[in-house]
Amino acid sequence: MTSPVDLPELPELPDGGLPGLFEGTVPPGVYRCDSVGPDVLMQADAANWTGAVIDLSDVTDKAEFMNRCATGLELPGWFGHNWDALADSLTDLSWWGETDGYLLMTAGWPGFEQADPKAAATAVNVFTAAVGYWAVRDAPLSVLLG
């Protein structure tokens, strides 16, 4: 582990879970969850949401986190592999097309959070800002950290 960092307290996905996110009874947000799997993407697709998984298995630093974001989210070529570029990418999801909502999920979050708490805290801040941006638009964004 690197230097001590105050990691943000993040809620677990509330009662109502994924169906609640898709129906609007669970507010958009950044939530911890036990795990994510292909069934989550199928549920998102069935609800006309666009979803993606960022595989953070064995990720120990910001550089690899950015690489995995680029791959998992299929970010456009202009993605600059830094926090500002990630924030810009998450507030311009036009390449994902028309949708009723966006669901970004991570697999392996606890390991990344432990390996690089500073980068994990910054990532949560970027995700939270993007959720706020989309919360006042027609297609909300939620992030599940599993």
Description:
Residues 52-145 form the Barstar (barnase inhibitor) domain. Belongs to the barstar family. It holds the Pfam family Barstar. This is Barstar (barnase inhibitor) domain-containing protein. The chain has 146 residues and is α/β, with parallel strands linked by helices. It has one domain (27-145): Barstar-like (Barnase, Chain D), CATH 3.30.370.10. 42% of the residues lie in helices and 15% in strands. The protein contains 6 helices and 4 strands. It has a 4-stranded parallel β-sheet with strand order 1-4-3-2, sandwiched between helices. Helix 4 (83-90) packs parallel to helix 6 (117-135) and helix 5 packs across helix 6. The longest helix is centred in the C-terminal third of the chain and has 19 residues, at 117-135. It starts with 16 loop residues before the first helix and ends with a strand. The relative contact order is 0.24.
